[in-house]
Each structure stands twice: as C-alpha cells, then as structure tokens.
UniProtKB/TrEMBL annotation:
It is found in: Membrane. Keywords: Membrane, Transmembrane, Transmembrane helix. The chain crosses the membrane at residues 12-31, 51-84, 112-132. InterPro entries: DoxX. It is a multi-pass membrane protein. This is DoxX family protein. GO terms for cellular component: membrane. The keyword tRNA processing does not apply.
Amino acid sequence: MFEAAGADVAFLFARVLFGGILAFMGLNHFLNLESMAGYAEFKGLPAPTLSVLASGGLLIFGGLSLISGVLPAIGAGALALFLLVSAVKMHDFWNAEGEDAQNEMTSFLKNVYGAGAALAFLAVSNATWPYALNIGL
C-alpha cells in the first residue's frame, strides 16, 4: 500500500498534521473550558461542561491514535463521528445571519472535510502503517 517513493513519509506527515491539529484542538477544550462550555450551552448541548471535557478527550485520543498507530480504527471512527455531529449541531450556519452565518459555515465545512479525512484513515486502518506502533484490536 505504501510502496510508492515517499509514500511512507507522506503518510506519516499526514498523520502528524491531521492528528496533531485535532489533539491540539482537544487540549484547547481543557484550556478554554469556561468559554467553550458557554458556547456549548448557547448551542443547546446538554451538560455543556461535561460535553466539552468529553469532546476534548475524544479529540486528544483520536489525534494521538492516528499519530501513533494505536487503535487507529477506533480513533479515526470516533473522530469522523464527532466531526460530523459537531458540524451539524455546533455549526448550524443555516440558523445564523450575516457574519455569524459565514463563520459558522466555515467551521461546518472544516468539520465536514475533517470527517472525510478521518474516514480515509479509517479505510486504511487495517493496513500496516509505516512508522507506527500498529496496535489494533
């Protein structure tokens, strides 16, 4: 699967970029808990503080899972599900107006293409990944 010249390094780079950004976003859930919980409450999430903590943990786990190759199917699947649900629930641009609508649409689209990337990692999660621990179920 990774036999083309440089494919192994490109795949590692993709895992580090994608997983690293998502893990960093998860860390921000903890560092900015109060403001993120306020936004979650504004969007109508039940138990907003717990929701922010749980989603932060999921992002950290999923991101590190893809970087390391430890349980990548679970990490990628959880990230894809989270990103799709978050896109619809948290970034409902169709209910906003003006600049808020544009900002929500941008966040919605970022989550949707992020879910696409997570699904691509899920699709190859059974392969042996180069430069990875390759620990699955």
